[in-house]
UniProtKB/TrEMBL annotation:
Enzyme Commission code(s) on record: 3.2.1.-
Phylogenetic placement of the source organism: Bacteria, Pseudomonadati, Pseudomonadota, Gammaproteobacteria, Lysobacterales
GO molecular function: hydrolase activity, acting on glycosyl bonds
Leading EC class: hydrolase
InterPro entries, sorted: Sialidase_sf
Residues in the signal sequence: 1-25
Origin superkingdom: Bacteria
The protein, known as: Sialidase family protein
Keywords, sorted A to Z: Glycosidase, Hydrolase, Signal
The keyword Signal is annotated on this UniProt entry: yes
Length: 348
């Protein structure tokens, strides 16, 4: 019996070695720079066609509602300065999301609210490299929440699909009063005219039959094989909101259900695929994970970009150089980026 058990263990071990990913991604974290020093929250970045970087941060004021501050950085994302500002008088704006269209137009999505009275996802556009922004459209809204603060729309994220459609993903509480009732779903809308108008929304992640679970904070990235990988949190049973994922062939048709659990990540995931084809994810767990095979296997980078542990700091991850990634985060009210060098030998 002992010989048989030992033989089975050896065979199992060999099998595991054969199916395990052979490549170990090494990232060496180094330089940290500051984009905004004080009163900042929720930071996101985008690269201009000329190589320079933009960042949007929520700016908190003592005597008036929040605004969005736009900063501009050099091609290495090292040197930053204030650039422009967007405000909606009397409304709290947050969850800023920058997206640069192929023609150079810059889109700025956001959530805009008067608590308990009006919830909107608004889209602005800039044709002067983010020096100024003009209102373009309202993606979705709830203007009759009956005084409730849990009937809103949140965290819009823009993606350009292969067929030229502009996709927006967001967390959506507006189905909570329906039958069945969904506490929150992930919704998607598509635009064929660059965000001026939007098609009917589709709930692409929801609890079967309705219920208390809250899938939200969706982000997707295109994979090296042309498919799209969507990551999102699901709150409700776990206060730390585990992260799951789905894969779509075209970025608009998604599998039913609540997806597949993504290990080592909790709350507010962010995803990107490098030019070499590796896909990285981070989240409020402040760890960084990667996959080379559309989520069949995930591995966690041994050293976190930010040694916070779980914190609602809302990080996001970008490729900032050929062999470099940057993780932007909120640290004690400042928006900062930590850069990491990817080992070229471990690059796919």
């Amino acid at each position: 019996m002992r010989t048989s058990t030992r033989l089975k263990s050896v065979v199992l071990g060999v099998a595991l070695l054969l199916i395990a990913p052979a490549v170990v991604a090494q990232v060496s974290w180094g330089e940290t720079i500051t984009i905004v020093e004080h009163d900042a929250g929720w930071a996101r970045m985008a690269r201009l066609p000329d190589g320079r970087w933009l960042a949007v941060t929520t700016h908190f004021h003592k005597d008036r509602p929040t605004t969005l501050a736009i900063s501009i950085g050099d091609a290495r994302a090292r040197n930053w300065r204030p650039w422009s500002m967007v405000a909606e008088p009397g409304r709290m704006i947050d969850n800023g999301e920058l997206f640069v269209m192929p023609d150079g137009r810059i889109l700025l999505g956001m959530r805009s609210l008067i608590d308990g009275k009006s919830y909107r996802l608004n889209l602005y556009a800039s044709d002067d490299q983010a020096r100024s922004f003009q209102f373009l459209s309202t993606i979705d809204a709830n203007e009759a929440p009956a005084g409730r603060n849990d009937r809103g729309v949140w965290e819009p994220v823009l993606t350009l699909l292969e067929d030229g459609s502009l996709s927006v993903l967001y967390a959506d509480e507006t189905l909570a009063d329906g039958a069945p009732s969904y506490n929150q779903v992930v919704s998607q809308r598509l635009s064929s005219d660059g965000g001026k108008t939007w098609q009917a929304k589709q709930a692409i992640v929801k609890q079967a039959g309705g219920g208390h679970l809250r899938p939200g904070m969706p982000v997707m990235a295109r994979l090296k094989d042309g498919r799209y990988l969507l990551v999102f949190e699901t709150c409700g049973d776990d206060k730390h909101c585990p992260v799951s994922f789905k894969v779509s062939a075209d970025g608009r048709s998604w599998p039913e259900g609540l997806g597949i659990l993504l290990p080592d990540q909790r709350c507010g995931p962010q995803i990107m695929t490098t030019t070499q084809g590796r896909t990285f994810v981070t989240s409020c767990q402040n760890e960084v994970s990667w996959t080379d095979d559309a989520g069949e296997h995930w591995q966690r980078i041994a050293e976190p970009a930010w040694p916070f542990g779980f914190r609602h700091s809302w990080p996001a991850i970008y490729q900032t150089g050929t062999h470099e990634i940057g993780v932007i985060n909120i640290d004690m009210g400042s928006a900062r980026v930590r850069f990491g060098r990817m080992d070229p030998a471990a690059t796919p």
